[in-house]
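Hey, can you fold this one?
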Amino acid sequence: MVIENHTIENITQARKAFQIGKEEKLGYNEYTATFPKPNGEITTIMFRDNVPSPHMTYIDGIVYTGTFMPKDIQEGSLPHVAISPTLAKALQYVYAEEGCFDAVNSYDKGIFSFGFIQFSGGMGGSLNDFMLLLKLKYPDTFYERFERYGIDVEEGTPRAVVSVLDAEEYKVVSGDAAWMHIMQNKQLTTVFIAAGHDMNVVSTQIEYIMYAYMNPALNSLIDLEIAGENYYNVPLHSIINSEMGVVAMIDLTIVMWVRKMSALFKQAIEEVAREFGLSSLEDVKNIDERSVIQKIISYEDSKALTDRRLNKVLSSGMSFEKNTL
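Sure. Predicted structure:
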């Protein structure tokens, strides 16, 4: 646990690196946070609470959109990931189209969300497993960015469990209670913002996308009915495998998870196959992937999630040429 190797006094002293100012505004509080970035540079940022959003659950939660964007990453500054050129290009597009690596939202039902696709901590969200992955891959980084400030993580089922020292109550709290404490404590909120500038933290955010979204998307299986013939457990990537198609699969998996993504592709593939007169699975493996994506965009029940994102994918300039991945 977080205080086994640290005294409360040491943790409290370390947290003083994060200086927080608070100014009351009309209907909300504005916070000024001054802290050292991983490179030693002292920086000052601002964020607010009482976020004007229909999703606002916690009035003292904040929004900080961040400043460290994927386009700011220097070439060669991240560890090489051994994947095919198609997957590398798809991954690059996905993280370039998302938010900032140092972004924090702590006003909605997820309690505390962090990073460029807003990994959520509350209710056993993915931020817990992200923290564990960071600790396992880069223990020194985890210590410098989190543990020395009283934030720790342990393996758990079904998710890892984050814990934090409540220095005022002289106790350690875990799970949702930990994320609530981090949300309410603006020093600890800023700990995450500062960590979002560490290249090992950034690398782990991108790698987690592979584990949690890319791999499930590429390993998804669908059942198809083509010209009256049933085909079971067909790998979706045996049909959708162009740069454009793979990006669409991963992007939808991020926003609606793999089951819904697979169901949409199944429906669209079957409809496009009928429209183009495709009569066998081998024919379907050469399906026009642009038509499949356009078909998904046309579905009214999922349009709020697919319309903007998939139209952006279609205009990205990536290839529809079939690949073997």
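The chain has a mean pLDDT of 91. Let me know if you want another pass with a different chain boundary.
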